[in-house]
Specification:
- With 112 residues, the protein is mostly helical.
- It has one domain.
- 79% of the residues lie in helices and 0% in strands.
- It contains 2 helices and no strands.
């Protein structure tokens, strides 16, 4: 048995397997980085979409609150206007100043 030949063959086989495993490792590393990149881009897109959705919801909520505040202000203005009117309803016709009955009921003092 030739030990030198066996050792050389074993070393060559070992080196061939190391090169093969290194190539497989590089391929796996490249594929994982590519997949990881795709997953990273997908995650970034997902986060951006969530942020846009959150901003849209916040804008809708702000608009709803502003509309509600406008309605409340309008109701308050109507109530103040009614309180300031003190029951006076302006006449709908144009001849209010010529009408003697209208002048009679609009006088400042009822003490004649």
């Amino acid at each position: 048995m030739n030990y030198e030949y066996e050792i050389e063959r074993t070393v060559e086989d070992y080196l061939r397997r190391v090169v093969q495993m290194q190539d497989e490792y590089d391929e796996m590393k490249k594929q994982m980085s590519w997949n990881n990149g795709v997953e990273l881009v997908a995650a970034i897109d997902r986060v951006e979409a969530e942020r846009e959705e959150q901003a849209r919801r916040e804008a809708q909520e702000r608009e709803r609150l502003e509309a509600e505040a406008r309605e409340q202000r309008a109701a308050i203005e109507r109530a103040v206007a009614m309180r300031n009117a003190k029951g006076y309803v302006p006449p709908s016709d144009d001849d209010e100043w010529d009408d003697p009955d209208s002048q009679y009921y609009r006088r400042d003092s009822w003490l004649v």
